[in-house]
Write a structure and sequence with these properties.
single chain; about 80 residues; mainly alpha; 434 Repressor (Amino-terminal Domain); about 55% helix; DNA-binding; TransReg_Diox_bact_type; DNA-binding transcription factor activity
Length: about 80
């Protein structure tokens, strides 16, 4: 059995889900960063998959968006149909 698509890293799944969840809630990176107690630059780097985000900061970001952390690490949660 072969897979049609390459498996995404957990960091990239989190990055994509964070960005989409933030946009769906119409929240700027700056507002999200402020609510989470993080810098806007940090949030931007996380969303681009450039930061290896800690579990503590993942929790802060999920709490700031008022969604369960498990939704941000689920590769199928915010998947857009191809």
């Amino acid at each position: 059995m072969t897979k049609n698509k390459e498996k995404q890293s957990a960091r990239m799944v989190f990055a994509a889900n964070l960005r989409l969840a933030r946009r769906l809630r119409d929240v700027s990176q700056e507002a999200l960063a402020l609510d989470a107690g993080l810098s806007r630059t940090y949030v931007s780097e996380v969303e681009r998959g450039e930061r290896n985000v800690s579990i503590d900061n993942m929790g802060l970001l999920a709490d700031a968006l008022q969604i369960p952390l498990k939704d941000l690490v689920d590769p199928e949660r915010f998947k857009v149909l191809d």
